[in-house]
Amino acid sequence: MDLPVNRFKHAILRGERQWGCWQMLASTIATEAMAFAGYDFLVLDMEHAPSELPEILSQMQAAGQTPTPCVVRMPWNDMVMVKRLLDCGAQTLMFPFIQNVAEAKAAVAATRYPPHGVRGVAAMHRANRYGNVPDYFTKASEEICVIVQVETLEALDRIEEIASVDGVDGVFIGPADMSAAVGRLGQIMHPDNLAALERGAKAVRKLGKPVGIIAAMDALVDHCVAWDYTFIALGSDLAFMVNKAKATLAQHKGKTTPTGPVSNY
């Protein structure tokens, strides 16, 4: 049996722009539904969503029946969590709050078996299709993708060094955390924040590596395309649900005359 191909990794390394969605609801149904919606990737969030390992596994199983690959955002740069997620079949991991080369190297090492890293060895798990990929130990790293997050000015100053670490496949720049770093908390479209996002993207792309972001506003998406961001999440399942619910309520609340059948099912 062959090792599963990481379609997300190979697409971004070819420079093909990928459009994604963040999964915040910790719901197998929401993840499965969004995986059928046509996005190129989904991010299963463990940092800011209530998804623990069992929920992540269930969401990967749900999305596994669809064409859409999953990226798992780690809660922290933790080698134990890396080992468990990889054994569960995660192939792309996103590491939050990487500040320097040493932390980036530690993230990569956690995804590699000895002598190239420190990943613990188990003989049978979901990643090797329960022992049915005979050459898994030698080939696993070919399909593992490591994305590191740059979220502070300190990391931004070192972004070229971080991106250049062997085994780092791409860099994600967090627009919300960066807005806090530049002193404009929550002001995503402030010129100071946009300048940081542009600076980071251009530095990473100059090295020939993929760079990603979440851009929930059309104006920010336009900027990110112009700055050659490689993978762009357009929002989250939670935001899509709440924003649509609020817009529909605002459209109809207060109306006293019927307007014909309306279906939100």
- Which blocks of ≥5 consecutive residues have pLDDT under 50? none
The main pleated sheet reads as:
8 strands, parallel, barrel
Count of DSSP-assigned helices: 12
CATH 2nd-level architecture of one domain: Alpha-Beta Barrel
Our estimate of the beta-strand percent is 5-15%
Write up this protein.
The structure is a single chain. This protein has 265 residues and is α/β, with parallel strands linked by helices. The chain has a domain at 7-147 and 214-237: Phosphoenolpyruvate-binding domains (TIM Barrel, Alpha-Beta Barrel). It is built from twelve helices and eight strands. It has helices at residues 7-13, 28-35, 53-63, 79-87, 101-110, 136-139, 153-157, 159-163, 175-181, 191-206, 218-226, 237-252; strands spanning 18-23, 41-45, 70-73, 92-95, 145-150, 170-173, 211-214, 231-236. It has an eight-stranded parallel beta barrel, surrounded by six helices. It starts with 6 loop residues before the first helix and ends in a 13-residue tail after the last helix. The mean pLDDT is 96.
